[in-house]
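Q: What changes when GCB is included in the input?
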Amino acid sequence: MLSVRQSCSRDVYSLDGLWDFQIDPTDLGNTDRWFATGLPAPRSMPVPASYNDITVDNAVHDLVGLAWYQREARAPRRLGSYRLILRFGSVTHSAVVYVDGIEVVRHDGGYLPFEADITDLVTPGQPFTVTVSVDNRLSWQTLPPGFIQTDVSGRQVQRYFHDFYNYAGIHRSVLLYTRPPVSVVDVTVTTDLAGEDGLVRYRVEAPGAEQVSVRILDQAGVAVAEATGSTGEVRVRQAHRWQPGRGYLYTLEVQADEDTYPQPFGIRTVEVKDSQFLINGEPFYFRGYGRHEDNPIRGKAHDDVSMVHDFELMKWQGANSFRTSHYPYAEEVLDYADREGFVLIDETAAVGLNVGLTGGLFGNQDQLVTFSEQTVNDRTRDVHARHIQELIARDKNHPSVVMWSIANEPESSSEESRAYFEPLAQVARAADPTRPVSYVNVMLSPPHLEKCMDLFDVIMLNRYYGWYVDTGNLADAEAHLRTEVAGWVQAFPGKPIVFTEYGPDTLSGLRDLFHRPWSEEYQVDMLDMFHRVFDEFDQVVGEQMWNFADFQTAPGIIRVGGNKKGMFTREREPKAAAYAVRQRWQAQARKEGSR
Ligand code: GCB
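A: The predicted holo structure follows.
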C-alpha cells in the first residue's frame, strides 16, 4: 500500500487529536449499534496513542475486548470528481470502521495501514462521523498469537508468548486524503548499479490511466531522467548512491492522467555472498539494536519527538542499523531511516510462535504445543502469509530496508515448524525477489536441532549466555557462546551471522563492585564478552544488542516494571554500557570511514 504523500493532485487532512472513547468489555456496542447512535458515555482519548496508560482507570488499562473511538470530520468543500480516502496508519490489533453508521472497512493486524474510499458516503463541505471499534484480543489465529483465560472473578485475562505489553488503540495517524478518480494505486521501484550509473526499474499501477510517465528528481528537485509507460528502466548517470550513513534519496514522480504521486527511493544494491552482507557490493557490518515502539504514557504510538530523539541517540552511539523488533514500525520511522541512512531489518508481527517461551527462557506451564490444529495451524499460516505480503507491499520501496525478518524466535526445531515455514519463505521471496529473507532463531534451537535455517539467507541469532543460562558466570558463557557460533559456521557454511539480541537486564543506577547480574557493570562486561567472541569470527557480520531502551512488558517475576535490557532507560537516560559500547561503535565507524 502506498504511503500518503501530498502532491498537486492530492490534499491531506489530519484527523489526529482528541476523539471520544469508550471501552466495551461486554460487547454492548455492536448490539446497541454505537456506530450509528453514538457512544453513550464517552471520555476523551488522544489519537495517536495506546489507550492503556492514558487514564488512571484499571478497566481501561487492563481491557480485554472492544474499545470504541468516535469523532466528527468534515469533507472538503471542493471535492469535485475527486475521491476521498480515510486512512489509518495502524490500529492494534483489529478494527472495524464506520462512516455515519455504515461499515467501510475492517482490518486485522495491529501494525499495518488500511484505508477506505468514503467518497460516496459524504457530502462536500458537510460533517460526517467516523467510528472505530478496536479489538485488542489475541488468538491462535492472530499475529502475535495469544489466548484468553477467565480468572476466578470472571474477568478475561489475555495470555501471550511475547515479551512486550499488549498495548492497543489507534497507534498511528488517521488521515483523510483526496486523489483523482483515475489514480496511482501502487509503485514498485528496484535499483541496480552499472559502474557509476544507477539503473532504476519501475512499475506503476494506475487502473484506467491512459497516460503514465515518470520523472526522476534528485535531492535538489532537478529532473535527471524520465520515461513514459507504466513499466520501464531508466538510467541515472553518475548516480548518488544510497549508502549506510548517507541516505541520498531520489524521487520517482509518477504522472498517471491527472494524478501525481511522488515516490522517494534510493539507488543501492543488497546481496548475500560468501558469508558477507553486501550493500553496494561492499561488506556491511550491522551495529545497533533490537528496538520497540514504546514510550511512557503514549505506549506504542508514533510521535516525531521521540523518533528524532531516538535517532540522535543511536547516531551518538555510532549505530548504523536496527531491527524493527517485533512488528512493522510506523511509516514515518522508515522514511526517516531512509533519509538518515539507517539500515533496517524489517520484521513482521510474528513473535511468540513458540509456546516454550514466555517473556524469556522459561517453562511451558500450560503444556501447550506450538503447531497443532488447536494452536498455530494452517489458518494462522494463511494470516502470516498475508502479513508478509502486506508488509512488503508497504515497505518495498524503502532503501533503508535491506532484509525481511518473517518471524522472531518461532519454534524451529520440529518437522511441523519446517512445514509451516517452507511456504512462508516462498511467499516472501515471491513478493520481493531483491532482498534477503530470514527469521530470528531462538536459543532453544541451536544448529544440531535447527530444522528451518537452510530455507533462509542470513542466520539471525538471539542469545543470552550469561543471563538466562550461565547467569553471572561470564567465563562459562563465553565458552558456550564460542562453541555455538563455531557450530553455526560449520553447519551452514557461507551464510552470514547477525546477532539480533544479546544482553542482560540492568537496573539503571545499580552499581556493584563485584559486577553481579542486574548491575550496570555486569551489562558492560556481558556485552564486552559477546563482542570479543564476535570479533573472532569473520562470518559474524552484525551486532544488534537487546534492547535500545527499557520497555514495558506484561507483569512477571523476571520483569521489574518491564524489561530492563536497555542501553538507555525507558526515559532515554544512558546506562554505563551506552558509553562503553559507544567507544567500540564509534571506533568501528571511524575505521570504516577511513577505508
Ligand atoms: C527474546 C525475545 C525478546 C525478549 C528478550 C528478553 O529472546 O526475542 O522479545 O524481550 O528475549 O529480554 O528476554
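Observations recorded in class: The chain is about 20% helix and 30% strand.
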